[in-house]
Design goal:
The protein is an alpha+beta fold and 425 residues long. It has helices spanning 2-23, 31-34, 39-69, 77-98, 105-126, 129-135, 139-220, 226-257, 267-281, 301-318, 354-357, 376-386; strands at 263-266, 287-291, 296-299, 325-334, 337-344, 391-395, 401-406. The protein contains 12 helices and 7 strands. The longest helix is centred in the middle third of the chain and has 82 residues, at 139-220.
Amino acid sequence: MYVLASAGVLLLIGAGAKIAPFAASSDFMPHGYCFLWNPLVLWLNVISDSLIVISYYCIPIALIYLVRKRNDLPFNWIFWMFGLFILGCGTTHLMEVWTVWHASYLLAGIIKAITASVSVLTAIMLVPLIPKAIALPSPEHLSRINQELETQIAGRSQVEQELRKILAEREQTVRELAERKEQLEKASQEMMSFTYTVSHDLRAPLRHISAFSGMLEEEFQSNLPAEGQRYLKRIQQGAQRMGTLVDDLLGYAHIGRQALKLQVASIAAIVDDVVKRFKVDAREREIEWRLHSLPSVQCDADLIRVVFENLISNAVKFTRGRRPAVIEVGSNTARGETVFYVKDNGIGFGMQYLTKAFGVFHRLHRAEDYEGTGIGLATVHRIIEKHGGRIWAEAAVDQGATFYFTLDRAPRRAEANEIALPQVQ
């Protein structure tokens, strides 16, 4: 770098020698006369100024190198201004060496004027830059920021690892749930097939029991003692009850295997037809029927008929001791979905037993008091579930019961009094 600066000084001296005759004046004397040509004084000033020139010329070269290598530095234009200013200062010292032997004071003044202009411009441009330079972060501040960033990166890396672990566990859970679902579906299908097969195979022996017990009663009733006749009656009643249970099981299994036949059906017409049959069967009872307006909806009409048959049958059965019995069928709209209900003033039940009511063979009352196989509500639940709806109930002991159900598939929030029902397989 110093070699380049020295070469620059020699170049400028040579250039000054060429232009000196134009800027020199015979009216002035060189500075050497001021030094009385004293070698010590003269060479002390010449060597000092030369070293200052070389140093001043090295600084702009270093600044130019810095700016070219680090063009991302903020305010890099100020380095160019400093370079020009320092170059001008070095040139004024070069002229001090030149005027020792040559009276080129006009040239020296021109160079000083140029240097002064560059200095003033640099100073003016530097003043508004100082607050911006002060605002630049210090190395300590940058180090602290780097440490904070490293801490954040480490924290994020840990969070990412935890998220990856959670995602892996979730994927494993999803796979396990899919496998479990597949197993449950397979088990459900196998259970349906088994139920259908067993129920179908039980019909033949039951028919034989009923037929032979009937023949025995018809042909040998006079020869049987009273106790034997009572036993025979119990056999016939048991066979009849078992036949009903088999029929219900076959119906339950058939519903599980049956595909939905969706169509727009009049719920009012379905309910009217079902109620007409029960009016005939219970014509000797005092029943007040309250049938409200019911809409038409898209559903499997045959299966929805089974729903109302079971719910209304239960209402008729469990209001047996009421005078009068009140059975109400209607619907309302809540949050954009239609809710159907069957209400009665019968014996009701405790809400703590609600989840059991929808299970197969689960009964809320004794078989000695109320007939039934315990499959009716399970069948209703399965049909509603196949339609993508929900079923729940409100009841109290000796205050009646109300069964609600929907056929909509729209998602919604659960009601406060809605009971989560088990999945009946």
